C-alpha cells in the first residue's frame, strides 16, 4: 500500500500525459471552423513510418565494414597524429555535399593527459638484493600481424599513474578491493610491499588507491585467463590469432582515475584561458606507481609466491596455487636459479620503474548537426568517442563506423530534400574519452545551460558490437518503450523471421507487472562511457546500445582484446562480427530510435515505466533497511514511503479544438525535463559531477537508491550516529526529489 502511495504522483502524471497526448495529437488536426491553418502541415509533423522503413533498407553492412577498415589503419590514441587523421576523416564525411550533414565543425579543448616515455619505457623486473635483474616483464605485446609492429602502438601503461620507483616483496591482493587488502593485511604486514592484482571487482585506479593506506609501495595489474579467456592460455592453438581469446602477452591499457572530465578544470570547460587547479590538488588518481602486465608475466610472478594459500575465491586459471606471498617468493623459486648466490626465502624483490609524464594537449570533438524543421531548439544528441588506445577496432571504432553509416543515410535524405527531422539532431565524435570521458564532459560543461534547457535525449553507441549474439541496452526507464519499438522493426542477424526484440528477450528478460515478460534494460548508474555527463551532470534522458555475446557460453567480463594491441580490423572481422551484420543491426536499431525521438509529435517517453522501476527500488529499500531504521527511530514512513502527491485528472470534456501546438510543446517539455527533477547538486559532495539521486554510482552494490544504499552501508559498518544522520538525510533527499518530479507532471500550478 505504501509503495503504491509513493508513486501515485508519477503514475497520475503518466495518466495525464497519456490523455494529453491523445487529445493534443488530434486536437490540432483542425481548427474550429474546419479549415486547417496554414502552419498546420509543418507543426503537425509526426514520425513517418515509411521513412523509417526506407532508412532501415538503406543501412549497408559493407559500408560499415569499409568505415571500420579506414578508421583502423593506424593507432589513434587521443591527441596523436593518428587521432588528427580520424578528425579529418570525420569532417570530410560530415561535410560531403551529397551525404553530409547541414554543418560539421571541431570543438577544441586543452586537456590534461598522461603518457609513457617512448625513449624510457616503463619496466617491471625481479631483482636480487644487489639489484641484479633476475626477470624482466615484457614491455611490448607479441606480434601476430603487422598491426602490432606499427611504431605508434603505445607501450602498455596506466594513464595517470605517477612516475616513480617502487621496490618490495611481492604479495597477491586478488582484485585490489578494500576487503581484499583488509584480509591480506591480517596475514601479512603490507608495509613496503608491491601488490599484484587482477582486473575486475574494483576500478583501475582503486586498486592502487586502496593499497596505499596499508603502506604498499606499488601495484601491478593483469587480466587473469579465468576472467577473460574461460581459462585458455596458449597462443599455439587457443588464443588470438586462432580465436577471440586474449594471447598471453596481451595487456589492457586504461585510464587510472576515478573522476570523469578534464582533471585540471572540474566543472569548467577546458579552454586555453580557463582557470586550472594546481596538479597537486587533483583527486581520484593513484599516489603510488601502478603498471599493467600480461598474464604470461603474471603467471611467472604469482606461481612463485610462497606462504599461505589465498582463499578459493581468489584462485584463477594458472596451474598453480595462488598464494598470498610471505611476503615474497618461495625459497625454491625459479628466480633462485637465476643467480649464482643462493638466496633465502623472500629475498628477491619486484621493482617498478615508471616514467609516465603529464601534459596539457589540444583534443578535439568533431560535431555535426541536422537542423530541425519545426523545433530546431530541441536537440536529440547521438554520440560515440573517436579515440582509442591502439587501433581500437571494437572500442570505439565499431561505434564510429556505425555512426558514419547512420549519418550517411540520414544525410543523403536531407541533401536530396526528401526529409528533415522535426527536432535538431546533433552528432558528437568525442575526443579523449579513454582518458576519462573528457570530450563529452567538456562539451556538457561548455554548453551546460543550452543543453540543460533544450536536450530531449542522448543516444550513446560506443562499442557497437562486443559480439554477435543479442542486443544489450541500458538507459532511463522512460526510454524502454522506444527501444522495444525500434528492436521489433529490425531483423536479428543470422536468424530467419526473428526480430532483434524477440532474440533479445530470449537472452535477457524480466517480468513486468504491467507488460509481462520483456527484455531486460540495464541502468546507467556508473560512468562507463560518454553518457555519464549527460545522465549524472545534466539529468538528460539517455541510453546506451550495443550487440553482445551469450553469457551462458563464456565468462569473459568483456571482449578479450579490449584495450590491447590485438583490437584490430583483423580481429573484428574474423572473430567479433564476420560480415558486419551485427553492426548493421545496431545501426538500424539506434537509427530507428534516433528518428523516433527527433520526429514524433509527442515524445515517445513513458513515465509509467519509470514508476515501475522506482517501485522496485522502493521495495528493495524497504526489505533491506526498514527494520534497522525503525530500530533507530528513523522512519521510512515519514520520508520516502509517505510521499503522496495527488494530481487530478485532466478535464477530458475540454473541446479538442482548444488545444494548440503550445499544449503539445508543454507536454513534451514535461517529458523532456522529468529526469532533471531528480538532480540534487548537494547530494553527493564526494562524487565529482554526480547529481542524479536515482542513477548515481554506488559502492554498496544494492539494486536501490544509491545515496541511501551507500549511507546505510557506512552507518551499519561504523555504528556512528553521524552516519545514521546521513541515512536520514538521504531519505529526505529522495522524498523531495520524487515529490518534485511528480509535481513537474502537474497539468497546472
TrEMBL record:
<keyword id="KW-0479">Metal-binding</keyword>
<dbReference type="GO" id="GO:0046872">
    <property type="term" value="F:metal ion binding"/>
</dbReference>
<dbReference type="InterPro" id="IPR007365">
    <property type="entry name" value="TFR-like_dimer_dom"/>
</dbReference>
<dbReference type="GO" id="GO:0004180">
    <property type="term" value="F:carboxypeptidase activity"/>
</dbReference>
<comment type="similarity">
    <text>Belongs to the peptidase M28 family. M28B subfamily.</text>
</comment>
<feature type="domain" description="Peptidase M28">
    <location>
        <begin position="365"/>
        <end position="573"/>
    </location>
</feature>
<keyword id="KW-0812">Transmembrane</keyword>
<keyword id="KW-1015">Disulfide bond</keyword>
<feature type="transmembrane region" description="Helical">
    <location>
        <begin position="7"/>
        <end position="28"/>
    </location>
</feature>
<dbReference type="InterPro" id="IPR007484">
    <property type="entry name" value="Peptidase_M28"/>
</dbReference>
<keyword id="KW-0106">Calcium</keyword>
<dbReference type="InterPro" id="IPR036757">
    <property type="entry name" value="TFR-like_dimer_dom_sf"/>
</dbReference>
<dbReference type="GO" id="GO:0004177">
    <property type="term" value="F:aminopeptidase activity"/>
</dbReference>
<dbReference type="InterPro" id="IPR046450">
    <property type="entry name" value="PA_dom_sf"/>
</dbReference>
<dbReference type="Pfam" id="PF04253">
    <property type="entry name" value="TFR_dimer"/>
</dbReference>
<dbReference type="GO" id="GO:0016324">
    <property type="term" value="C:apical plasma membrane"/>
</dbReference>
<keyword id="KW-1003">Cell membrane</keyword>
<feature type="domain" description="Transferrin receptor-like dimerisation">
    <location>
        <begin position="661"/>
        <end position="745"/>
    </location>
</feature>
<comment type="subunit">
    <text>Homodimer.</text>
</comment>
<dbReference type="InterPro" id="IPR039373">
    <property type="entry name" value="Peptidase_M28B"/>
</dbReference>
<keyword id="KW-1133">Transmembrane helix</keyword>
<dbReference type="Pfam" id="PF02225">
    <property type="entry name" value="PA"/>
</dbReference>
<comment type="function">
    <text>Aminopeptidase with broad substrate specificity. Has lower activity with substrates that have Asp or Glu in the P2' position, or Pro in the P3' position. Lacks activity with substrates that have both Pro in the P3' position and Asp or Glu in the P2' position. Lacks carboxypeptidase activity. Lacks dipeptidyl-peptidase IV type activity.</text>
</comment>
<keyword id="KW-0031">Aminopeptidase</keyword>
<keyword id="KW-0472">Membrane</keyword>
<feature type="domain" description="PA">
    <location>
        <begin position="167"/>
        <end position="255"/>
    </location>
</feature>
<keyword id="KW-0862">Zinc</keyword>
<dbReference type="Pfam" id="PF04389">
    <property type="entry name" value="Peptidase_M28"/>
</dbReference>
<protein>
    <recommendedName>
        <fullName>Aminopeptidase NAALADL1</fullName>
    </recommendedName>
</protein>
<keyword id="KW-0482">Metalloprotease</keyword>
<dbReference type="GO" id="GO:0008237">
    <property type="term" value="F:metallopeptidase activity"/>
</dbReference>
<keyword id="KW-0735">Signal-anchor</keyword>
<dbReference type="GO" id="GO:0006508">
    <property type="term" value="P:proteolysis"/>
</dbReference>
<dbReference type="InterPro" id="IPR003137">
    <property type="entry name" value="PA_domain"/>
</dbReference>
<keyword id="KW-0645">Protease</keyword>
<keyword id="KW-0378">Hydrolase</keyword>
<keyword id="KW-0325">Glycoprotein</keyword>
Amino acid at each position: 500500500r505504501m509503495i503504491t502511495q509513493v508513486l501515485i504522483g508519477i503514475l497520475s502524471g503518466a495518466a495525464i500525459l497519456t490523455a494529453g497526448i491523445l487529445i493534443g495529437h488530434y486536437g490540432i488536426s483542425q481548427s474550429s471552423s474546419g479549415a486547417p491553418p496554414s502552419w498546420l502541415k509543418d507543426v503537425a509533423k509526426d514520425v513517418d513510418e515509411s521513412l523509417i522503413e526506407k532508412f532501415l533498407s538503406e543501412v549497408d553492412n559493407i559500408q560499415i565494414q569499409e568505415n571500420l577498415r579506414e578508421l583502423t589503419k593506424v593507432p589513434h590514441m587521443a591527441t596523436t597524429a593518428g587521432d588528427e587523421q580520424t578528425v579529418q576523416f570525420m569532417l570530410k564525411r560530415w561535410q560531403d555535399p551529397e551525404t553530409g550533414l547541414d554543418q560539421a565543425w571541431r570543438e577544441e579543448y586543452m586537456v590534461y593527459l598522461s603518457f609513457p616515455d617512448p625513449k624510457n619505457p616503463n619496466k617491471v623486473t625481479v631483482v636480487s638484493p644487489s639489484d641484479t635483474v633476475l626477470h624482466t616483464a615484457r614491455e611490448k605485446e607479441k606480434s601476430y600481424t603487422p598491426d602490432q609492429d606499427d611504431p605508434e602502438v603505445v607501450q602498455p601503461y596506466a594513464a595517470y599513474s605517477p612516475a616513480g620507483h617502487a621496490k618490495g616483496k611481492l604479495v597477491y591482493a586478488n582484485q585490489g578491493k578494500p576487503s581484499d587488502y583488509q584480509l591480506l593485511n591480517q596475514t601479512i604486514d603490507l608495509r613496503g610491499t608491491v601488490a599484484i592484482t587482477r582486473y575486475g571487482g574494483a576500478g583501475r585506479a582503486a586498486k592502487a588507491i586502496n593499497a596505499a593506506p596499508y603502506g604498499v609501495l606499488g601495484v601491478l595489474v593483469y587480466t587473469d585467463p579465468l576472467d577473460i579467456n574461460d581459462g585458455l592460455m596458449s597462443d599455439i592453438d587457443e588464443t588470438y590469432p586462432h580465436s577471440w581469446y586474449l594471447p598471453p602477452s596481451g595487456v589492457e591499457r586504461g585510464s587510472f582515475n576515478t573522476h570523469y572530465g578534464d582533471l585540471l578544470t572540474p566543472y569548467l570547460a577546458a579552454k586555453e584561458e580557463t582557470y586550472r587547479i594546481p596538479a597537486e590538488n587533483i583527486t581520484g588518481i593513484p599516489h603510488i606507481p601502478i603498471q599493467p602486465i600480461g598474464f604470461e608475466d603474471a603467471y611467472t610472478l604469482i606461481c612463485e609466491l610462497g606462504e599461505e594459500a589465498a582463499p578459493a575465491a581468489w584462485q584463477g586459471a594458472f596451474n598453480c596455487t595462488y598464494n598470498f606471498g610471505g611476503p615474497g617468493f618461495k625459497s625454491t623459486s625459479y628466480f633462485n636459479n637465476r643467480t649464482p648466490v643462493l638466496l633465502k626465502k623472500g629475498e628477491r624483490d619486484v621493482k617498478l620503474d615508471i616514467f609516465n609524464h603529464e601534459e596539457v594537449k589540444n583534443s578535439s570533438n568533431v560535431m555535426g548537426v541536422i537542423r530541425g524543421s519545426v523545433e530546431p531548439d530541441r536537440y536529440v544528441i547521438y554520440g560515440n568517442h573517436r579515440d582509442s588506445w591502439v587501433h581500437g577496432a571494437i572500442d570505439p571504432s565499431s561505434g564510429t563506423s556505425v555512426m558514419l553509416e547512420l549519418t550517411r543515410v540520414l544525410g543523403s535524405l536531407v541533401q536530396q530534400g526528401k526529409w528533415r527531422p522535426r527536432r535538431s539532431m546533433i552528432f558528437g565524435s568525442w575526443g579523449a574519452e579513454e582518458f576519462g570521458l573528457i570530450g563529452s564532459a567538456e562539451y556538457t560543461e561548455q554548453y551546460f545551460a543550452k543543453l540543460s534547457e533544450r536536450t530531449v535525449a542522448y543516444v550513446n553507441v560506443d562499442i557497437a558490437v562486443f559480439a554477435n549474439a543479442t542486443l544489450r541496452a541500458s538507459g532511463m526507464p522512460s526510454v524502454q518503450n522506444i527501444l522495444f519499438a525500434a528492436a521489433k522493426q529490425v531483423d536479428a542477424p543470422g536468424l530467419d523471421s526473428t526480430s532483434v526484440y524477440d532474440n533479445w528477450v530470449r537472452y535477457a528478460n524480466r517480468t513486468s507487472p504491467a507488460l509481462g515478460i520483456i527484455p531486460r534494460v540495464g541502468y546507467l548508474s556508473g560512468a562507463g562511457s560518454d553518457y555519464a555527463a549527460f545522465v549524472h551532470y545534466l539529468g538528460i534522458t539517455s541510453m546506451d546500445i550495443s550487440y553482445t555475446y551469450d553469457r551462458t557460453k563464456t565468462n569473459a567480463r568483456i571482449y578479450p582484446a579490449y584495450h590491447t594491441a590485438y583490437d584490430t580490423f583483423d580481429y573484428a572481422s574474423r572473430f567479433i562480427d564476420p560480415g558486419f551484420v551485427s553492426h548493421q543491426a545496431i545501426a538500424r536499431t539506434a537509427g530507428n530510435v534516433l528518428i523516433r525521438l527527433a520526429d514524433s509529435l509527442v515524445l515517445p517517453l513513458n513515465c509509467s515505466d519509470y514508476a515501475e522501476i522506482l517501485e522496485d527500488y522502493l521495495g528493495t529499500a524497504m526489505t533491506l533497511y526498514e527494520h534497522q531504521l525503525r530500530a533507530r527511530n528513523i522512519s521510512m514512513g515519514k520520508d520516502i514511503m509517505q510521499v503522496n502527491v495527488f494530481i487530478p485528472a485532466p478535464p477530458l470534456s475540454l473541446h479538442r479544438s482548444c488545444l494548440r501546438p503550445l499544449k503539445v510543446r508543454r507536454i513534451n517539455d514535461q517529458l523532456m525535463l522529468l529526469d532533471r527533477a531528480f538532480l540534487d547538486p548537494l547530494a553527493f559532495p564526494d562524487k565529482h559531477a554526480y547529481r542524479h539521486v536515482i542513477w548515481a554510482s554506488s559502492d554498496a552494490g544494492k539494486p536501490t537508491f544509491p545515496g541511501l544504499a551507500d549511507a546505510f552501508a557506512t552507518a551499519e559498518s561504523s555504528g556512528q550516529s553521524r552516519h545514521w544522520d546521513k541515512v536520514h538525510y538521504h531519505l529526505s533527499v529522495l522524498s523531495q526529489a520524487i515529490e518534485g518530479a511528480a509535481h513537474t507532471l502537474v497539468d497546472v500550478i
